[in-house]
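The step that takes the researchers longest sounds almost clerical: writing a folded protein down as plain text. The outcome of that step, for a single protein, is printed below.
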Amino acid sequence: MLNTPLPRRFGAALAVAGSTLLLAAGGASADSIAYVKGGDVWLSTPDGARQYQVTFDGGYSTVSQADSGRIAALHGDRIRTFEPDGKIVNADGTTRYDVLTPHSYTMPGTQFRGPFDPAISPDGMKIAYTWYYTQFGETPNCNPSTGCQTVYGRQGTNYISPDGRSPFDKPGYNEQTGWVGPSWNGDGETLLSDPIQVGNPDAVVHTPGDAAGGLPGALSRWFFDPSAPGGLNDGEMTRDKTKLVFVTGEQRETLFLYRAMGGYPQVPQNCYRLEDGNGRVSSPSWSPDGKTLAFADAGGVNVLPLPDFANDCGTPTAEHTKRLLIPGASNPDWGPADVPPARPATPDRPNPPQRPNPPRRPSPPRTPTGPVAPGRPVTPAPDTAGPPRGAAITLRKRVTLGAALKNGLTVQLSGLKPGVVRASAITGAKVVASGRAKVGRSGRASVKLVFTAKARRQLRDRRSVKLRLSAGKAHGSVTLKR
């Protein structure tokens, strides 16, 4: 049990200085912050001076990067891995892997949900991800004859190679059941949190099985913090193992910052809390030198420089103030690889030489309505079946929050290009519902957004929730109430 006084509030008192703060470490650094914005993967320099769009097809919800810059991103229920500059990664000349995990499908009697929050290891050789499933069964006292059904919920962390061809549940890829939200401590172990069973420690360290001296699937129970409302989630430790951060709070609106003191088995010292009232926080990620923290909230991706934790919790100054780096972005992941250079601009083609206008032909006589007279030319009518101008996504009909969680949320798309489009509903920084539809020549389609099992659990007791809706270039928002 973590036995420390309540952490000090951090950042709110220095908010006035935030507008003029310059992140000194970012300008000279070759690091990059990967993030998701508008459904696509982007990279930014730590000072926000240069952004680089990696993907253009939309539908991405989370992103993680290795030390080399290799990216693992979640696209629907598949993990996509690729190089940020579009280099070829496959023997067949394609530029990415599209991995269907063992938890990306449903089996009779057992409903898997996943993958979620894939995190690629620093060496780029393994990807850890969260999974959930719900299993329906019966007991002698609870079965169809008694009108009763038992429901078992499980969760855990699994591992897979970037090409998806790794053996399932073998040394190096041994799954773990009970804790989720993986982040890597080097290449051989992960930090997990958010236990499903009451009484288990908040944080554990898991060894997939092929680290030096590691046992296959070894789990080390680390610590429990009774001062954290709602437990600890989404944790990450600095590379030098001096700092540790977790998301906490009943609505996951708070960050707890710890002095890690070398990591497991040392019990961390609880130093600060950050809660500035800007909604749900997620995806905390440390700079490679451990001096600055990036995280997402309702405003976008933020950066927060921190004092040195080597000997104590340090003393915050005006420099240690949160700053909004990328408005509207989510899911930051900080790595040591540089942002690729800007793509070369497409050269303008020279205008062809102008040709003299041909002599104007006389207009053909107007064709009367009815059968066409023999020998008379007919001018075809212009095609008016193209998509309407202005992409939009709207509710098909008013629906309550409870009904939407149970039956899905049907939205109407308009103004989109023909083809298959993925629609998503987002709250905070997480995609909570999604669906697909085929858009015809009219540019319109109707799509049903189905909420994930995790989202249904988290939202079922809410009185209202505001959702951001996105489908291709169509964007909107809606507030669902009980």
